[in-house]
């Protein structure tokens, strides 16, 4: 009898311990999982760290053996040389204007179009969406010459309008927001708003926009990065006196000999705004991921 009594609590404790190790059928991450994540994280951060290290030394540091792995004392000197060598301040300002304008426009128009394609019923809706998606299969380089001729006829060559206007809306943004809003906004909620007397524009502003914030943050981040890193079209349509930041970076590396400390200093400066935008939108992005995971 004593054996039965002592064995029973032991058997009762076994399922609890197993449940603690694996709740809901999910196994806890082991040592090698965290080791792999740390290795990927360090591998991703090393190029940024190495750029900062070289930017804080003179140009001879990149050829040293063994390589330098600690910061030097030439960072502010190299930053001053970047602004003296090229119009980097104006290039940063131009990129802010272009990237900010394009991001706001793409998010706004893509959300409007996504709402129309996902929740409004009108003739030719599916055909228009298919045509919009089909435009993504056309290489961007094929439209460079006609687009440049159009910008020249409008008198926009050398001006920021030539970079901003062609990117005010994208087919990817329209498709992305259409797919998100089709599942994020219930039809019953829109019908309830219409019964209460809301117009379509009011439904969009008070119902669709709050629901679209996580997707809009993701789209805004991708759009800002694409506009900030765009090089080919600004190089074609803008002048060296009115560049964007990527064109200014290319001018830093265009000498007879490349000053890598100067180039990587400019690269570090050009990376800061992208990191700042990600930090500003990170909460919305993570919130959207977590809400999707909870719904799933």
Describe the structure.
This is Sugar ABC transporter permease. It comes from Microbispora amethystogenes. It is found in: Cell membrane. This protein has about 300 residues and is an all-alpha fold. It has helices at about 1-20, 30-55, 75-85, 90-120, 125-135, 145-155, 160-165, 170-185, 185-195, 200-210, 215-230, 230-235, 245-250, 260-295; strands at about 20-25, 25. The two termini are about 50 Å apart. The protein is globular, with a radius of gyration of 27 Å. Residues about 1-20 and about 290-295 have low confidence and may be disordered. It has a two-stranded antiparallel sheet. Helix content is about 75%, strand content about 0%. The protein has one domain (about 70-295): MetI-like (MetI-like fold, Orthogonal Bundle). The protein has 14 helices and 2 strands; from the N terminus they run αββααααααααααααα. A hairpin with a 2-residue loop joins β1 (about 20-25) and β2 (about 25).
């Amino acid at each position: 009898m004593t054996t039965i009594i002592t064995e029973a609590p032991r058997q009762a404790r076994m399922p609890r311990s197993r449940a603690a190790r694996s709740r809901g059928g999910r196994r806890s991450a082991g040592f090698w999982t965290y080791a792999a994540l740390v290795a990927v994280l360090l591998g991703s951060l090393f190029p940024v760290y190495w750029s900062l290290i070289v930017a804080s030394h003179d140009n001879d540091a990149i050829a040293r053996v063994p390589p330098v792995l600690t910061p030097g004392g030439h960072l502010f000197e190299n930053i001053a040389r970047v602004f003296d060598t090229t119009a980097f301040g104006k290039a940063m300002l131009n990129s802010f204007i272009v990237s900010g304008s394009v991001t706001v426009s793409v998010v706004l128009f893509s959300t409007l179009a996504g709402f129309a394609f996902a929740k409004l019923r009108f003739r030719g809706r599916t055909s228009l969406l298919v045509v919009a998606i089909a435009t993504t299969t056309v290489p961007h380089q094929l439209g460079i010459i006609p687009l440049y001729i159009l910008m020249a006829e409008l008198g926009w060559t050398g001006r920021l309008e030539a970079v901003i206007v062609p990117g005010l809306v994208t087919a990817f943004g329209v498709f992305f927001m259409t797919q998100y809003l089709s599942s994020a906004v219930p039809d019953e909620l829109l019908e309830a708003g219409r019964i209460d007397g809301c117009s379509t524009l009011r439904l969009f502003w008070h119902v669709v926009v709050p629901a679209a914030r996580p997707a809009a943050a993701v789209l805004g981040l991708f759009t800002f990065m694409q506009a900030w890193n765009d090089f080919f079209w600004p190089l074609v349509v803008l002048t060296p006196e009115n560049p964007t930041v990527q064109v200014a970076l290319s001018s830093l590396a265009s000498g007879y000999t490349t000053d890598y400390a100067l180039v990587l200093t400019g690269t570090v400066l050009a990376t800061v705004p992208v990191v700042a935008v990600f930090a500003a939108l990170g909460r919305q992005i993570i919130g959207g991921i977590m809400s999707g995971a909870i719904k799933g």
